[in-house]
Structures are given as structure tokens and as C-alpha cells.
Protein: DUF935 domain-containing protein
Organism: Candidatus Desulfovibrio intestinipullorum
Amino acid sequence: MKGLYSADGTFTPFSVMDLSTELATRQNAGVTFSELEGWLNTLPDPDPVLRKRGDDSAILDELSADDQVTTAMLSRKNRVLNCPHFSFRAGAPEGEEPTPQAQELYRRFMADLEHMNLRSIISGMLDAPFFGFTPLELIWRLDGDWWHLLDIVPRPQRWFRFDNDNKPTFVGVYGGLAAQPIPLPAGKFVFVTHHATYDNPYGLRLLSRCLWPVAFKRGGVQFYARFVERHGMPWVVAEAPAEAEKLEKRDMALGLSRMVQDAVAVIPHGANVTLESPGQSQASIHEAFLSRQDRAISKVLMGQTLTIETDGKNSLAATEAHKDVADDLADADKAMVVDAWNEIAWLFAQVNAGPDVLAPVAAYEEPEDLGKQADLDKKLSEIGVEFLEEHFTEKYGLKPGEFRVRASVDSAAVANFAARGETTLLAEKAQANLDAAIKKMLPQALKASGKFVSQVENAIRKARDLDGLQDALVELLAPAMEPNELEAFLARAMTAAAGYGAVAAYGEGVEDA
């Protein structure tokens, strides 16, 4: 018997009935609906903005008339629509080649898609973030024993609702043919949803979050238009003489009003007329208010503002950060589109081939960054990695006849060769210094005797160690030099000889290695 052990060691067996039935359902939770929605047996729209206003999703279409909403929607959709790396491939297990049946299914699927406007279909899919979901109706045609996909049509989301089991149903509009919700046939519709949940199968509608900013903006624009019309032109201010009668002041006002239209007016003698301009503070307040609503709309629909708005005061770092947010949303929208196409391809496979043949697979395959790959290859090469021709043909797309892989050089051998060369130079330099020291240290009188110099050189060559060299030099030089001179000469000669010996010994050790 299978079950679970709790922390205290208690064993609880599995119950087939408990595991195979749903517990946390709306019926068990006691969720009730309004009378109308209960009669239709559909879930109420849980959108908090629409419910508070008492509106339905049909009002969302009106919001797209706003210029900022339209710009943000198009900017977000175009980041996906303009991506050229969308493609299909035949279905196959990971690391394996597709079967002939999968290849044939892929060929027929692509042949059906050739007659469709894929850009319009993907554009309809990308409406899901704004309206919560997008219903796609699949139009089929039976030809012999094969179902051809004639078209994929995005339908208005306001015509569909979800029932108590979160299954979509067609309701149309009140007063239409659908007096009762019509269940959708299997294989007929694909729903593209945006963050749909069990509690909210209608999805997260971004346009409903723009309802209040658009409403405030419309009211502000109307008020701002009246303000500009009233206060945008200069005010004509006249000072009438103190003794002017009421009738004269009225005539003077009429003349000034004509002046606004004709720029010509006749005023009484002694009157003073000036043109006054309103201050800019009121206008700037209205501009800031309207800009605030535009920024709110951009943040809701695009996640940021700088990719569609610039005010000249933004730093490069802030612009890059906002671009990263826009890229993340574009990646999420691409994943949503890929999921929808994969479901369509799966239905195509189920209708025509059954579950034994893998369906075609859709994907956005972004090209690799060759700059990053080259930097990685450079670092790997510096630590000793050797690349073959296949690496450059697969990673960089080079043809075999376009390049050659240079033979690698043994860095250890190069270092050893350099060390040997350096040792040879040191030995030759030490030998030259020793010869020069001997010639310099010998007294001038001794240098004059070539025979004596030859005896000294022979003694140095024949000496097997330092002690033997010292004894030979003593025997040769003792009769010809004073004791002090002899000791100084021997000290200098032995120092030079020791240095030469050390260099020679080091060179022999390197060669043996």
C-alpha cells in the first residue's frame, strides 16, 4: 500500500478517490453568482476596474482610440511582429531525428500555413495582454481522409465567457442568436491567455488598468482646450476716464471686443489700452497633469516609459534599464505566441495523424552572438584549448575552404628553447668577461711575455676544480709577483672563475632537463 509518512512517523495511505477528485471547487467553496450570470451559467468577469464601474469588456475597445494607448500597443506588438527568427520544425525527441511520418506531417502543416497571413494571426495573438485573452477559431476542410487547415481567425473576446468549470463558451451579445451559452467543439478553438488563473480565467487585462488614466486625460484635455481658448490670447485691458459715463464704457468695451477680431478700435480721448498676457504657471500645471496620465499608460502597457517617451533629461543607464524591461516583455510575448502555435500544431497532428506522431514545433530561434563566442574561444585558446575545423564551421558558419587551422605551438618547448638561448648567451658573456679580467689583472710586464701568458691559460684549461686551478696559478705566479700582488690577483681571478663555473653549470642543468 502506498502512502505518506509524516514527521512523527505516522503512515497515511493514499486514497484513490481522494487523489482523483477535485476538492477546492467553487461549488464546495460556496461561490454564488448574480441572477443573470447564474441564469447564463457563466462566471462573472472578476476584473476589479470593470466591476467597480459596472462595465463589461466591450468598453476596452474605446480605450484604444487614445493616442498614447495606440502608440504603446503598437510599440509592444511590433517588437514581436518585426522579429524575423520565428520558424517551425518537424517534431522529434531530444537529440533524435524526426520520423518520416513527422516529416510528412510537418510538410503538410507548412503547406496549409502558406495560404495564411501569419502576421495578422500573430498580431491577433498579441492582443491577449491588452484584452486578457484572444479566441482563435480554426477553419478546417476535409479532403479525403485529411483535414486541411484553411484559416485561423482571431475572434472578439467579448463574445466569449467561461463557465463554472473554466471552460470557454460562446455567448455573442445579448439579443443575438446565442440565447444560451454554446459549448465550443473540440479542436475548433485555441485560446491565447495572458496570466489566466483558476479564479480569473479571463486573464489579466492591461487595458482596463488604463481606463482611469484615459478618463482623467480626456477630461483634462477638454478643460485644457477651454483654458487655451480663453487664456491663450492676450487680454485687452482699457482704463476709461473717471468722468466716463456707463454708456460710454459699454461702447468702449464693444470697440475692444471688435479689436480682438479686426485689430482696429476707436476709444474715447483719455482712455488707456494695454495688452496683458496670462502667466505660464497654469499652462504648465495642465501639461504636467496630462504627461502624468501618459506615463501611467506607458507603464501599464509597456512596463516602462523611455522606449516611447523622451524628455531630454534621461541618463543612458536609465534608458538601458528601461530597454531591458521592454525586452523582457517581448520575450514573454514571444513565449505566449509560441505556446499558441504549438497548441495549433498539436491539434493538427491529433486530427490527422493521432498521438503516435509528434507534432511540428514552433520557436523563436535567436541567432548566437558571434562576438561573445569569439571572446570565449579566445580565452579557451589562451589556456591551451585546441579547436578543430568543425568548431568554426558549426559555430561561425564558415566553409571548409575558407580558412585553415594553424598548427598549435608547444608553449613549454618555446619556453625551454628561450631558456637555453638565454643560458648560452650568459655563458658566452661570462667567458668573455673572464678572459677580459685575466688580461686586465695581469701586470703589464707579464703581458709582455707571451710564453708566460700561454702557461697561465694552459693551467686554467687543465684545472679540473677550483683547488687545482689555485695551486697551478701559485706555482706559475709565485716567482714573478710579490706576495700582496699575488693574493689580490688570485682573489680577483678566482671570483671571475667562480662566476663562469656557475653559469656553465646552470646551462648544463637546463640542457639535461
